[in-house]
Amino acid sequence: MSTPAAEETLARDRPLLERSGTAERVAEILRQRITEGVFPPGSRLSEPSISAALGVSRNTLRESFQLLAHERLAVHELNRGVFVRELTAQDISDLYVMRRVTECGALRCASELSTVDLSALAAAVTKGRAAADEGDWQAVGTASIAFHQAVGDLADSERVSTTMRQVLAETRLFFVLADNTRAFFEPFLVRHERILRDLERGRFGPAETALEKYLRDAERQLLAAYERRES
């Protein structure tokens, strides 16, 4: 069920809809909040609460729910409502196949460009390290999502960037398996820094190799966490 904190967050998003209150824009906001962990897997997306918080009609909200369901971020349960989707082990494996193809491919595309802007990656690394210093591991997870979105954006392709946003929103759904712990996130934060250093030196090949290993290790850890939770 939507929490008061989630509703307050959405109320702050209302100005984003002033010029365009379309279902697509509502879905974009909800997708972003799912990515940030505001709505964790299994939580109910309360139609009355969200409609009031964003100041949109029920019809607009229902259309946005349909878009999220199409993206496999939400599910409609008969006589119960709409819920943020909970992923399976097969979902985890399939998402990481997609991530390896997309993110490693983005680095190969970037290697062919005359100039590459790494500022978004650097900003994500800085935010992640600052959050880690404060012991805020959920914020470290959010910074990690931003880092990987920035990797996808290096391809300089609107379609790749859009695909990454959807895939990373799904990825955040199973961050709950990691319980936002230091043991899970800190090693990957160090890897972000190493990948960034390689890219800053124009070492795209080593960066891609490191990224692929990173993603395989993350998949393995999340599958193990999923199995522990299911057993």
UniProtKB/TrEMBL annotation:
The keyword DNA-binding applies. It holds the Pfam family FCD. SUPFAM superfamilies: GntR ligand-binding domain-like, Winged helix' DNA-binding domain. InterPro entries: GntR_C (IPR011711), TF_FadR/GntR_C (IPR008920), Tscrpt_reg_HTH_GntR (IPR000524), WH-like_DNA-bd_sf (IPR036388), WH_DNA-bd_sf (IPR036390). GO terms for molecular function: DNA binding; DNA-binding transcription factor activity. Keywords: DNA-binding, Transcription, Transcription regulation. Residues 20-87 form the HTH gntR-type domain. This is GntR family transcriptional regulator. It comes from Amycolatopsis azurea DSM 43854.
